[in-house]
Model the fold of this input.
Amino acid sequence: MKNRLIGFAFFLALLLVLGFLWGCSPATQRTTASPMEITDQLGRTVKLDKVPQRIISLAPSNTEVLFALGLADRIVAVTDYCDYPPEAKQKPKIGGFSNPNIESIIALSPDLILAASIHEKGVIPQLEEKELTVFALTPKTMDEIQQAITLVGSITGKEKEAAALVDDMKKRIKAITDKTSGLTALRRPRAMYLVWHDPLMTAGAKTLQDELIAKAGGLNIAQGLTDYAKISLEAVIQADPEVMIAGVGHGSGEDLTFQFLNTESRLKDTAARRNNRVFGVDANQVSRPGPRAVAALEELAKFIHPELFPGAK
Amino acid sequence: MSTPPANILPLRLTRGHNRIYAIVILCLLLLGIGGVAIAIGSVKIPFGTTFAILFSRLPLVDFTPNWSGGLSTIVLDIRLPRIILAGLVGAALATAGATYQGLFRNPLADPYLIGVAQGASLGAVTGFLLPSGWLGPEMVPLLAFIGALGGTAIVYGLARVGKTLPMTTLILAGVAVGALLGSIVSYLIISSGEKLHGIIFWLMGSFSLSRWSEVQVVLPYVLAGIALLILYARPLNVMQLDEEQAQQLGINVERLKLILLAAATLITAAAVSFVGTIGFVGIIIPHAVRLIWGPDYRFLLPLSVLAGAIFLIAADLMARTIATPEEIPIGVITALCGAPFFLYLLRRKKKVLF
Done:
């Protein structure tokens, strides 16, 4: 009986080890031409028979990753919201971000569709039913962005480009955090990233903006909240942010949120307004979990610590 | 005008004293809830400080300020205008609801019955979608106001038959035009992209950014409209018979209908233009008042003014404190708290509404 148990345990252990090796091997050992199985960021196992040549991106951040890896000529379609790099606007469109048009996707017969977390419940099952290859990228942090880039690199045969891009991001992030990670709470200015002004919404914990503020050496006043969270005007006044940041330049187009920070009379006594420290940052850089998040980090660092990172506008 | 005999009007006028007391009590309650609402918020300010800040603005009172400018901004420029606006909107919606219910002699009537809400929504959504450079930040409330009046004007124009305005036709035209405008709004919402969130929040109603300039705009419309409606309480009582009898009693029914509709629509439009189409107040408050104090419009209207204001101030207080520092759309609170309370009243009284 005992022997049997030991034997069973050994068998289980062997299974685990084999499973582990089997799970790891494709990413590390494959050649670009052979079929591969790879796990996407939703934990789905995706089979790829060959290197994809007709790619559809269902998210602006995915489009940016594809272009950054030099895959422009393999993209057959993107969403209406994909506007960076400018060439992305020339690509055929398959509809919105949250509600892409399934028929147009099928009509383009893609061999790889890069989806996002928003598509998990509705769009991905629908596309899988049509036996299309869907790979989901759901980065929320700087680490996950780098992971997403590496994943796209390995499924498209652009490992080298991906490694170079990730390496560059790591270096640029380190250049910032080397100077900011040692700062005590007292030397971290209270900062707020305003997502929308009516209703007031800030970026709380577990958002990319929260991570960017922390890495840039600030103290997010909304770190007690999670995700994009509504906040009351009086809570903002009470927290008295020293730096206020809003996205500008895209999407909402008219920079209403940035204007709000600059003109709302009841914010005039905040430290940020008194010291003229209200900043606009490219809305797409700061909110898209793509390669340009690093550029947003560099901007925020200049806003929050001009003494460490000179050159702010 | 002499009091009509009791066998003609179903009014229990002997209870007049009760209802005068009720007005006094509701006034005190309004002051009380206002006091609570100004002292509570996502930022904790001691009661003493709150009222010192408040009273320091009165003439003849001389406090040495020992509070920061931020606290004074919170009490005087965030909470106070917000409470006053909530009170005004609640009063307007409840009074308009009571008027519509009387005018249509229909218990399901509410201020949004004949196109106001859908018109306002269409205006507001258009305002959200247009580039903001056009008219600046006031574009949404302005277009909502125009939309609200426009929606009702269309319904009114469609329902007119010669020189008369049959109430059934008005309701049906209201339902049809409302559905039409509503479908346009739905289409605009799904194609609104990233502005979706702001639009949805507006539609559910919110006082989160209420400011003095909004109070200044809304106040004259609402006060004038309510005063006018209260002046017409007696003819509105007579209208509860039927239109022919009211005519025989010397009331110019068509003119009365036009005046009441115009006043009620105007205050509703002013109320929703800044804060969104807050539901439930306009239908439930007049019924609650009617269930407790009877259907005499001379009391029903002023009591609705007070009860509506109290209800919406309390609802807004809950909206901004329950999930602090987040704010819940007020429409969620009005329906969530209003409906059970109303059902309780309905079961307790167990009498017909009209």
Observations:
- Chain A touches chain B at residues 81, 96, 196-201, 225, 229-235, 237-238, 240, 251-254, 256, 259, 265-266, 269-270 (CB under 8 Å).
- The first strand of chain A starts at residue 36 and ends at 39.
- DSSP finds twelve helices and twelve strands in chain A.
- The CA atoms of residues 261 and 278 of chain A lie 7 Å apart.
